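Q: My labmate handed me this sequence with no annotations at all. I'd like to see what the chain might look like in three dimensions before we decide whether it's worth expressing. Could you predict it?
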Amino acid sequence: MIIRSFTRETKFMAKDRGALFWLALAFALSVIAVSFGVAEVREQRSTIATLIEEDAADRASALQGHEEWGSAAYYAFHFTYAPPSDFAFAAMGQRDSSPWKHRVRMLALEGQIHEADTRNADFGLVGRFDFAFLAASVAPLLLILLLYDLRATERIARRHDLLVTTAGSPGSLWLPRALVRVAALALLLLAPLWGAALVEGTSLALAAQASAIVIGALLVWWLIVELVSRIDASPSILLTSLIGVWLALAIVVPAISKAAIEAGNPVPDGGEILLLQRETVNDAWDLPKAATMEPFVAEHPELAEGAIVEGPWAWKWYYAFHQVGDQTVRPLVQKYRDARLARDKQAELVSFFSPTSFVERSFEKLAGTDATSMIAYEDAVREFHGQLREFHYPLMFPEQPYDEDLLNGLPTYTPPS
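A: Here is what I predict for the chain of 417 residues:
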């Protein structure tokens, strides 16, 4: 009996041109979204591979012909990056608005981090059409268009009561009809995602989690449509009401919560950090060298014996005031980091009141493109820069005889896992 009901409703849906159009559109949009995502991820991987090779060649060239540790450190750049995960194609997330690659050297670091290196900052404003956006924002609209008039159309045709009586109960009539459409929508949305996940080598567990998120979100929206469509009103009124609910949950709630979260957790501007650091570094040229070396030695007491600067110039003094620049902005950097994490944590809590926000955030977390992942990349850059300093400082405090072969021991950047 159950199989017969679903077979009947499948045939009925196959004759509904409107339903077939929305389902075909869902499949086409899913193919487009994952295709764009896969293409972007592959381009980023290609860019990283190219830059790794060019960076190694450039550094090898830059390290030749020096006679001092300081000049060798000055001209050597080091490429750092956050590679896209094998699921990043589904949700580019913060990779559109936050830098995922930097070339850094031994100079003051925070200024190098806060010089944005995004490929196209416009994406940070308008967003990207990826699968996460499709599943979060577009799929609910398609579901509404598939389900909103199932009851209302029968009421207008005056067949509603007869159909319910014939079926025996409302559930045995409307449940199979709606479930067939919801299942068809879920399948057509997820099929391209599964294909892309197979091509990209995404783990089965991760693909299953993503599928569960999409299906769960569709079930939530189905419940909303079901509750609203029970109202005895015309299809146009029901559609308007459901669009209003979608606007409230998908746009109004996230917008209001975003404004409230940002007001409650002010974040220092990255340009403010950059400006303060540059002012500190530039001012050091005109200050007594002790003004630089004292805070530097306080940070590195083990280098105190070699931190005496005699004469107008010394590489160790130059790198010391660059580090003091980082030390000066450290409280501001920590405030910047903490406020971003606080915003992200609060946004995670608010997302439970907005299915669209919840789906997007869940996909970004699975893809490793959320705010936490991008902050982890910044932390990895800072850790690597610290390793560079730990390598160079013992060679300059006090100055050791220059030996180019020792530069083969330069630390190697490892991206965050």
